[in-house]
Design goal:
The protein has six helices and three strands. By secondary structure, the protein is an alpha+beta fold.
Amino acid sequence: MWRAFLGAHSAVVKHLERTMLQQHGLPLTWWDVLQQLADGPDGRLRLGELADSVLLTRSGVTRLVDRMVDAGLVVREPCPGDRRGYFAVITQKGRDTIDTVGPDHSKDAWEVFLGHIDYEEAELMAKVFKRVLDVEK
């Protein structure tokens, strides 16, 4: 089961990365950051929170956000009361990118993974994944 999980995860992520790059020129990690920011309060997260949510190191998320700032998808804003802290904030262009890319990404995720799981399996998997995530908190 463990090896099947790891193999499925790797295959799905590789497929979604390749497809997103081909269709939209957007790396999957950028999509993940845009989604996390869009779901954050006021479209923003501290860089440390963002690093935790996308499983990157702080230096890795800093470099990634720098590239996304250059692309106009994200801006940096200083954290009030913390001279060293910064927020990453999604821009309107970032939100427009979610609107443009989202339907294709959902379709691709369905084709490569979600469409192979029935309702009962999805409920069971959600329970298991939630239980695993709760242990990590």
